[in-house]
Amino acid sequence: MKKFIALLLASILIFSFAACGKEKTDPAGTTTAAAGGASTEAPSTGGDQVFKFAGVYPDMLVLDVMKSTTTDTIQAGSLVVEALLDFGEDFSVKPLLLKELPTVSEDGMTFTCALRQGVKFHDGTELKASDVEFTFNRMFLPSTMCVNTFLCDMILGAQEMLDGKTDKLEGFKVIDDYNFTITLATPYSPFLSVLACEQLSIYPEKACTEAGDRWGVDTFIGTGPFKLKEFTPKDRIVVERFDDYYGEKPTMASLEMYNMDQNTALLEYESGNLDLVAVNQDVVDTYRKDPAYEKQLIVNPLIGIISMNLNVKKAPLDNPKVREAVGYAIDTEAMVENYLKGNAYATSCFIPRGCMGFDETRPVSKYDPAKAKALLTEAGFPDGVHLVTTISEKSTAVGVATVLQQQMKESGIDFEIQKVDDAAYIDLRKQGEVQVAFSTWYADIVDPDNFLYTILHSKSSPRFSSNYNNPEFDKRLEECRRITDPAQREKLYREAEHMVVMEDFANVPLYNPIKFYLQQENVSGVMFMNSMVDLFYAKK
């Protein structure tokens, strides 16, 4: 099986909580994401079939998966490149570019790795350990401007590279052309899962170096089953089957991914010119109620969380009672039901459904304006407070914020919405200057660390404009990184999540999102996982 199976299965698990959708059926008529990966039949090659899919992908600016955290780039780039490991059907990892799983030292700090021999890049050169070393070093060079270093900055020497003190990872050692070791500076029990992330896909040193800043634009070469044929930023990517691929070959001769506005994409789909299209929430009900399309609608619950970070350094949110009042001042269930048309899951948990640590027993927070007003009075604000959220003008959070703005009025909270361009928003958020910051996060790996540590640990929280700093919270997360017992990890993660959400009120969870697609009835084998799709087994 190809990539993303773990995320696919997580989607299946999440769907058991759904209030909408039907039983899993054959992909030709499925309404759930689960059936998309049900095929175990080996793909047959041959022919010149082309698979075309589209969505709103405005951030498809580059294919270099180090340069973006958006689905737009990672979906497009992952059509071409591969990581060292892959996800298996039971959430475990399995070899991909490695011939076997790494040998882990007794202290859990050193990973000894052996590459498959004879793997070719799309330019015909052979994959070597030096390419892997180059890729990992490139990730941490400040000149690369990689935005995904948080995934593996626990490697020995990573911080020194980020600080510009050296140009090589101390923790990466090449043994010979096919063998190398990776040593961590601090323990990290989910590290093998990190090695399966698309953002750590391996690049050919020579080709990447020669391409310079045009890498991922004019030139992009990997080891994957498809090779790049054409890329037009913000418009399309076309890939074609790589005949020298070391593994089994995909069914389709080529794939075409388009960035289209929603109306155009739907017209193209209805005309039969697209095989698959991502569907915005505001038109989902139109297709769900249409007998001609209801069986083509794919419901894909995501392992992700939409929430609000309450900046604990920005008055009046430095007062915990004010932060608690915000939670009572919003009605997440009404927002999901009325604004999102029921196409999401209201939640009071920061750890999302489908991930270890999710507390299924915790009820959704109760909307109680009277309680919110009482808390504000206790905090010294009997006349209410003024709060400001700064949002990227193109963010889907603008609509959600507008709904919450109206709700908060009932509790005496004047919630101002400031819309800025995307670059300005990112700068403000990273500087820790946004008072109320909407956060959208999907799982890179299906592990609570990817949510709690990445966003709310004191080392991370400033760049998400949370500025949350609780030594006891940090201690639990750091301990979870060292231990491997799942039950013990889950216990500590639940304690930590309860601390930040229910005791310190530094984050207000809102909902777990759902993504929707329309898939032509003659299509099968598409695997839907989190915010992306895997087309390796696609047939039509």
Keywords for this entry:
540 residues, alpha+beta, Dipeptide-binding Protein, domain 1, Dipeptide-binding Protein, domain 3, 10-stranded mixed β-sheet, 4-stranded antiparallel β-sheet, disordered N terminus
Classify the helix fraction into a percent range.
25-40%
Tally of helical runs: 16
Shape: globular
Overall radius of gyration:
23 Å
Strand segment count: 20
> What is the CATH superfamily label of the domain at 304-514?
Dipeptide-binding Protein, Domain 3
Q: Provide the CATH top-level class of the domain at 304-514.
A: Alpha Beta
Give the CATH architecture of the domain at 304-514: Roll
Instruction: State the separation between the terminal residues, measured CA to CA.
Output: 19 Å
Flag low-confidence runs: 1-31, 34-42
Rounded mean pLDDT is: 90
CATH topology of the domain at 304-514: Dipeptide-binding Protein, domain 3
Largest sheet: 10 strands, mixed
Strand residue content: 15-25%
Q: Which class of secondary structure composition applies to the elements?
A: alpha+beta
